[in-house]
Amino acid sequence: MVIPFHVTEMLRRVMARYDAEKTPQKMAPNDDAFSLLRPMRKISQATVEKYWARLRPTACAADQAELADPVTMAQAEQYSANIENFIGTVKLPVGIIGPLRLTGMNANGDYHVPLATSEAALVASYARGAAAATKAGGISTAVLYEGVIRTPAFVMKDLLSAGQFVEWVVRNVEDLQAAAEATTRHGKLVSLEPFIDNNIAFLICRYTTGDAAGQNMVTIATDALCQRIAEACPVPIEAWYIEGNFSGDKKASALGMVTGRGRKVSASVILPREVVEQVLGTTVEDMLAYGRVANLGSLLSGQLGAQAHYANGLAALYIATGQDAACVAESAMGVTRMEPRGEDLYVSVTMPNILVGSVGGGTGLPSQSAALNILGLKGAGHGAALAEIAAATCLCGEISIVAAISAGDFTRAHENLARHR
User: Fold this and answer.
1) For 359-374, what is each residue's pLDDT tens digit?
2) Which fold would CATH assign to domain 94-144+264-419?
3) What are the sequence ranges of the domains in the chain?
4) CA atoms of 231 and 246, how far apart (whole Å)
5) Record's family (predicted)?
6) Which of 77, 303, 318, 407 is the most exposed place for a label (fewest CB within 10 A)?
7) CA 281 to CA 276: how far, in whole Å?
8) Residue range 82-102: mean pLDDT, rounded
9) pLDDT for 242
10) Catalytic annotation, residues
11) Is domain 152-241 in CATH 3.30.70.890, yes or no?
12) Who's near 278: CB < 8 A, 6+ residues apart?
């Protein structure tokens, strides 16, 4: 049997750091006395000073001045609903792309899109895609479906009991819907779908959430629904859990890919041949040729969907506008398509899990509120438009990266804008 080279090399590196006497002692449990931080949400100058005192001597006064700067401290109370053990804020570069023209169901007009990132070349790439799409007349967008899901799990004695449990739930769905919706002014339980695995029953609870991303909203509503089941269901329940890890919350899943978790959005544009050649520096044929290879790579590697790099644009937009950045794990799924339209190029993305909101979460924080104001989408009434902008931004990224790789410019662009900046 042949042991792969990388295995032997890794063993060599591990053993080079191993000392027969010192390493076991170093890795043994250490029960020396220590003092835990107690989670606190109330923010004051005194609490900030207290936490920084704990960080000495590894963190110096200059570190404190950078994170707990005067502007941050003057607005410190605004962060109290979003974080515990507050010590300051991190400054991340923000760039804009645009104008990005959208001719959408909800987002219609020219937008400058703020993107927060430390990755050089990202904003330039998305800006190039936006320039091509806008010069082509704009991106068509539509929210196709909406539904944030939470999936509680109920454990019964056996399969028969699980079946009886589901039968009771189906007969009492209106009562359960009322219990859930009593917790929120904006959330609506639009479907409740049972899924049985032997003695365990999952309930796929799907909600519309107004203009909020709605993660906390659906959790609280589902808890009320489960409490009602626990009180009224005659079938003995051995245990229940608010989330059975079935929903795809903050992770890529086949369920999310097929049914969506959040807003499902499609965005598309037809790029004229001259735009591809003049703005993107490549040809329609070369983009299609690379697209075929990239789709094969997606298929062979087992990706959920087929796309180049949705996560880049989503993470930058989510951070800039106060979204839950961890939701990029599920939002960055979908399908990019490139097809010829005569001499021109049709490009589309369909993304089933865009979780964004124009209210709630981090959208009210000072910097994030400013970013939403740049978009003109701060506050109620803009959640669907923000979701369409998210998909359109990802479409711009797909256009640009495929053009760069097909033209052989990808490495050179990163050398010029990142390594040799």
Assistant:
1) 999 999 999 999 999 9
2) 3.90.770
3) 94-144+264-419, 152-241
4) 24
5) Belongs to the HMG-CoA reductase family.
6) 77
7) 7
8) 96
9) 98
10) 119, 250, 324, 414
11) no
12) none
